[in-house]
Amino acid sequence: MLIPSIKKTLNELSDLLTQLTSDDYTSPCFGLSNATIGEHTRHIIEMFQCLEKQYEAGIINYDDRNRDYRIQTDIAFAQQTIVDVVNQLDKQNIKLQLQQMVDGEELFLDTNYDRELLYNLEHCIHHQALIKVAVLQNDAIVIDANFGVARSTIEYRKQCAQ
Fold this sequence. Notes:
By secondary structure, the protein is mainly alpha-helical. Helix content is about 55%, strand content about 10%. A 3-stranded mixed beta sheet has the order 1-2-3.
């Protein structure tokens, strides 16, 4: 169920991008501390790419990302990159190490591929919620009410409506 949820979430992002102009995508948004939708999209994609790239080595360091600025400036390239990410998700759940610097201290934490996929899904949804803040300023863009909302919140809302 995890990979289908990730695919659904990334496809929702890609679908949203089809509605945006280049200006919508690259213009700073006051509500996002002057970040752009493109910057948030790049960040989402690069976290997944980082996991993919470092999977074989077994040590995941999310600070060691490419930061490909073409993703944040070229909508079509971002969408193709999302397709590439989606096509590379289905891997064996193996043990991994998460490497992270925290206040100057290097940490290595035990994790696994599925746990990191879940982290990336939740991270993606969080950034989609931020993107939604920018998108709601534009009446011409249609966005699903559940875009950027955690799956657990969606399920909870369904239960409350019954």
